[in-house]
Amino acid sequence: MTQFENVTVLKKVNSYFEGNVTSRTLIFADGTKKSLGVMLPGDYEFGTDTKEIMEIMSGELDLLLPDSSDWQTIKGGQSFEVPASSKFQVKVKAIADYCCSYVKE
User: Fold this and answer.
1) 24 and 35 in contact (C-beta within 8 Å)?
2) How far apart (Å, rounded) are the C-alpha atoms in residues 3 and 80?
């Protein structure tokens, strides 16, 4: 999917790590939320409230998921899931354009 229809976009930016990671929140008619954002090269650790599905649309990063000791490389066109109430680490190698879906279970 290259576009979303009939969504509300919150104007306020979500900014993390001194502006190196930014996103905008999208709210769909059924109440589901996604964020569209960009991560500049760097090392970051994120925490989750809900389960997240991260789709990397372009760029490249190394990923360390919770309960894993093995880093994996994720490139544009790939995605990964992170459980609720957990933390994950990324080492962004090339500017990463992403879409994060928040999954209520």
Assistant:
1) yes
2) 20
- Do 82 and 88 contact (CB within 8 A), yes or no? yes
Q: Is residue 2 in some structural domain?
A: no
* Residue 34 vs residues 7, 50, 55, 61, 83: alpha-carbon distances, Å: 10, 12, 11, 20, 16
Please report the pLDDT score of residue 101 as a whole number: 97
- 63-90 pLDDT tens trace: 999 999 999 999 999 999 999 999 999 9
Share of the chain above pLDDT 70, in %: 99
Dihedral, 37, 16, 33, 12 alpha carbons, nearest 10 = -90
- Kindly report the number of other CB atoms within 10 A of residue 11's CB atom: 6
| Host domain of residue 98 | 7-103
Q: How many domains does the chain have?
A: 1
